[in-house]
Every structure is written in C-alpha cells, then in structure tokens.
Design goal:
By secondary structure, the protein is an alpha/beta fold. The protein folds into two domains: about 130 residues, Ribonuclease Inhibitor (Leucine-rich repeat, LRR (right-handed beta-alpha superhelix)); about 70 residues. It is about 40% helix and about 15% strand. The strands form three sheets. Strands 1-3-5-7 form a four-stranded parallel sheet, with no helix packed on it. A three-stranded parallel sheet has the order 6-8-9, with no helix packed on it. The protein is elongated, with a radius of gyration of 38 Å.
C-alpha cells in the first residue's frame, strides 16, 4: 500500500494511526486527489514530511504527531487553505514554523528545535534565513527542468554549436587530399614513380599470397597422404 503509484481518489478518509508503521511517508500520498482526512499519528515513521504535501488542496485534517519525523516543515503546507486541523507534535522537526498559519502551539509542541509563532521560542537570525530542504529541492528541480527543456527545445546542433571545429576538419582534409594528388598530377616523374611503387607492391603481395597458398596446399596434402 505504501508503494502504490496510482493517482486517483478512493476514500477521502485515511486513518492509519496507532499501528507499527515504519519508514518514510511515501511521496505518493500527495497524489491522493480529494483526500480530506489523513491520520498517521502514533507510529514509527521517520524521514521528512513530503515536500509536496501542499498539493493536497482538499485536506481538512492532517495528523502526523508522535512519530520520529525530522527536517523542516514544508512551506507548501501553508498553501492548504482548507486545512482546519493540524497536529505535528512530538517529532524531531526543526527550523521555523511556516507562515501564515492559524494553528495553536499545541500543533507543534514536542519539537524542541522548532521556533517562531505560535511557539514561544523565537527564531535566531540564522534560523529565520535558513533554507528548508524543500526549497532547496524545488530550486534544484527547477534548474534541472530548465536545462532539460532547453536541450529538448533546441536539440543537438553540432554545426551550430562548434562551427569552427568542423570547418577546420573539412579544410584540413581538403588540403591534404588534393595537395597529395595535385603533386602527383603536376609532377609527372613523381607520379610515375608513385604508381610504379604501387604496381610493384601489388605484384609482391600477389606473389606472396600465391606462394603461401601453394605451400599450405602441399603441406595439407602431405599430411593427408601420411594418414
């Protein structure tokens, strides 16, 4: 059930509290469109609250209390405008409580490293400016998506990206190829010498192949005669 990847709406009410669930809260929970009540309290859940929890706009009640969750509270939780009940108490959450929120301190107690309203503990300057895991992930994801989109849009255009490289290769090939043959064509003596060399080399290769083939044939026939 934790690993379900289907994006649909079944029960709007999900209460799995007071079980012995372990591991992280699956990100797929944030794809349950229409979910209004989610209670995962009093388990042994670890890890961070899913960054996209704010995508479940229909949530009216969220209870993740009495687990072992850590990390910062996703800023997107403030986007759930219909959220009337929230309980994140007695975890190991850190950082500043996202604003705006209309919840009492009871929703956040038991997290000794949380600060900011409605808690009595004030945030230091460093905590106020601290970037959450979710904001860092969102930034990295946006940068990666931008790079992929740019590559997908423009495609790979080698002649556009490095024209000087291909021009130099083409000019070098042209110069070397025609420079060699032009020398042979314009200088008759060199041309004749070159073609004689090729002819002699071809003859030598032919003779070598014929002699080697004859030797192998005689050797093979001799071995058959002995048998």
């Amino acid at each position: 059930m934790w690993k379900s990847r289907v994006n649909y709406c079944l029960d709007k009410f999900m209460d799995l509290s007071h079980n012995m669930l372990r591991g992280e809260i699956p990100k797929e929970v944030t794809t349950l469109i229409g979910l209004t009540y989610l209670n995962l309290s009093n388990n042994y859940l670890t890890g961070a609250i899913p960054c996209d929890i704010g995508a479940v706009k229909s949530l009216n009640y969220l209870d993740l209390s009495s687990n072992q969750l850590f990390g910062t509270i996703p800023p997107g939780i403030s986007d759930v405008t219909h959220l009337e009940g929230l309980n994140l108490s007695y975890n190991n959450l850190t950082g500043k409580v996202p604003l705006p929120n209309n919840f009492s301190a009871y929703a956040f107690i038991g997290n000794h490293n949380l600060c900011g309203p409605p808690l009595a503990k004030n945030c230091s300057a460093n905590e106020s400016l601290e970037k959450t895991e979710c904001s860092s992930d969102r930034k990295s994801k946006g940068q990666n998506d931008g790079i992929q989109e740019k590559e997908h849009t423009h495609g790979f255009k080698p002649f556009k990206e490095k024209p000087s490289f291909y021009i130099s290769v083409a000019s070098g090939f042209f110069t070397g190829f025609w420079g060699f043959w032009a020398t042979l064509v314009l200088n008759e003596s060199r041309g004749n010498a070159y073609f004689r060399l090729l002819g002699n080399m071809g003859d030598r290769i032919y003779v070598f192949v014929v002699v080697t083939t004859a030797r192998l044939r005689r050797k093979f026939q001799g071995e058959q005669a002995v048998e």
